[in-house]
Design goal:
Layout: H1 12-22, E1 26-28, E2 35-37, H2 39-58, E3 62-63, E4 69-71, H3 72-76, H4 79-85, E5 91-95, E6 98-106, H5 111-121, E7 130-139, E8 153-163, H6 166-186, E9 193-196, E10 208-215, E11 221-229, H7 233-238, E12 241-243, E13 249-251, E14 253-260, H8 262-271, E15 288-292, H9 297-313, E16 319-321, H10 329-338, E17 343-347, H11 349-353, E18 356-361, E19 370-374, H12 378-403, E20 405-407, H13 411-417, E21 422-427, H14 431-441, E22 444-449, E23 468-473
Parallel strand pairs: 3-7, 15-16, 15-17, 20-21
Antiparallel strand pairs: 1-2, 4-6, 5-6, 7-8, 8-14, 9-10, 9-22, 10-11, 11-14, 12-13, 17-18, 18-19, 21-23, 22-23
Length: about 475
């Protein structure tokens, strides 16, 4: 099945689109810019959602749901917010056969409608902090759609919190940034850089925006999640106030943070190869596939019985027994490799006689990735192999990022570095220097890493004193 895939080195964008469709993650919808998430892709998103949802609840957040339709006047209450989102808005002007008295924006994000509700719900300092998350869909009119990465409608979670002090809100912003980073690395095996967005790249209406940035398999960056310190901007616009312990009245400090289905695209591009998907075991919908191998009916009865015993032994592992008659073992190998299943368990007549099975790792091709293990110890062997694959994928992605990251000091070196991957360079903080590089190369400042060197350097663009070291890259 993977023989039809375009090699990544030949056309990375084409490879990506083919993998997403052939592996049955998603397909194009009849409305331009929209996608249908297929069951296998949705199972991957469900695993992302389940792990994040557990983490949110462990940090004291609860789930709720807010409307898809937002009065247009709500967006206009925060000037920077409406200006930032206007080019992407879908607006409903008619309903029930009549023109609406007020147009309704189809949810691009929910700060405004949630701000309206928080103003009703928060009265006293005893109501704080208010920590709510919602799982929902949003619509942003996308001019250059790409499956998962940029679609007009996509799925996400958006957390929205209100606090009594600036310090509490800032602590929340960094806490959730760390939650995303830990999830990305420990579950998705995607190494990320945590950092502050530049003024031109921050969320519209935020006081400060933070993100985790990941390097894809072609050296480009993908903003994988964001966490925003909204200050008192939305509290002021929607009159979100609380009575203090001494009887005063103050504005709340609010935050918002989110991760979307574009992270599925990150998993595809960070780990995939020319045979298709390579899924980290902790996210994979199917962690191990059992493929029985036979030539005769007598062999089939023996190996299928042995395969079912293996399946029963793998309780707690997301396992599938592929005993379909109509496909050869070779076809099945190719199919499950394309779909990125981390581990294949082969059971043939010789294995039955020797009371063993053969494990084949998806991340290590050929004979090097194969290991015969006793059938009696298959459960421990499979779990150990899955752990090894998880660790290996993270280390491989880290090594790739390191090999494609350059620390540069001057503009020509900066321009050359962003053609290959990430550039670490000092930046003076001026929008002019940022815009110059963007016009010349399409690269932007992805983030200003939270971990900064002790020594200062000169801005790689203009040569003046650098304020911060930044990550420059072209991005999706």
């Amino acid at each position: 099945m993977a023989k039809g895939l375009t090699p990544r080195s030949e056309d990375y964008a084409k490879w990506y689109n083919e993998v997403v469709q052939l592996a049955e993650l998603a397909d194009y919808a009849p409305v331009r810019g929209c996608m249908v998430i297929r069951p296998y892709g949705y199972a991957l998103w469900e695993n992302i959602r389940a792990d994040l949802d557990r983490r949110f609840k462990e940090t004291g957040h609860v789930n709720a749901y807010f409307p898809l339709f937002i009065p247009f006047s709500f967006l206009e209450k925060e000037a920077e917010h409406v200006e930032g989102f206007s080019p992407e808005l879908a607006v409903v002007t008619h309903g029930g056969g009549k023109e609406l008295e007020e147009p309704l924006a189809v949810r691009p994000t929910s700060e405004t409608v949630i701000g309206h509700m928080y103003a009703k719900w928060i009265q006293s300092h005893r109501d704080l902090p208010l920590l709510i998350n919602q799982w929902a869909n949003v619509v942003r009119w996308e001019m250059r759609p790409r499956l998962f990465l940029r679609t007009t409608e996509f799925l996400w979670q958006e957390g929205h919190t209100a606090h009594a002090t600036r310090e509490e809100a800032e602590e929340e912003v960094i806490r959730m940034l760390n939650v995303y980073a830990d999830f990305a690395e420990q579950v998705a095996a995607v190494p990320v850089i945590k950092g502050l967005k530049s003024e031109s790249e921050k969320f519209a209406g935020a006081g400060a925006s933070y993100s985790i940035e990941a390097m894809m398999g072609d050296g480009r960056a993908l903003q994988s999640a964001t966490s925003h310190d909204l200050g008192q901007n939305f509290a002021r616009a929607f009159d979100i106030t609380f009575q203090t312990a001494d009887g005063g009245l103050e504005l709340c400090w609010t935050t918002s943070w989110g991760m979307s289905t574009r992270f599925v695209g990150a998993v595809v591009m960070v780990h995939g190869d020319d045979q298709g998907l390579v899924l980290p075991p902790r996210l994979a919908p199917i962690q191990a596939v059992i493929v029985p191998i036979w030539r005769t009916d007598d062999e089939k009865a023996q190996v299928v019985e042995a395969a079912r015993k293996v399946e029963a032994a793998l309780a707690g592992v997301r396992v599938k027994l592929d005993d379909r008659d109509q496909f050869t073992p070779g076809y099945k190998y190719n199919e499950w490799e394309l779909r990125g299943v981390p581990l294949r368990v082969e059971v043939g007549p010789r294995d039955v006689k020797q009371n063993q099975v053969v494990l084949a790792r998806r991340d290590v091709p050929g004979r090097e990735g194969k290991q015969a293990v006793p059938a009696d110890g298959v459960a421990d062997a499979v779990r150990a192999a899955l752990d090894a694959i998880q660790d290996a994928l993270l280390e491989r992605a880290r090594a790739f990022r390191q090999a494609h990251t350059q620390e540069v000091e001057d503009y020509e070196a900066l321009r050359a570095a962003v053609e290959e991957g990430f550039a670490l360079a000092w930046w003076c903080g001026s929008a002019e220097c940022e815009e110059r590089l963007k016009e010349d190369t399409t690269a932007t400042i992805r983030c200003i890493p939270l971990d900064q060197p002790a020594d200062k350097g000169a801005c790689a663009v203009c040569g003046r004193g650098g304020q911060s070291q930044a990550v420059f890259a072209r991005a999706y």
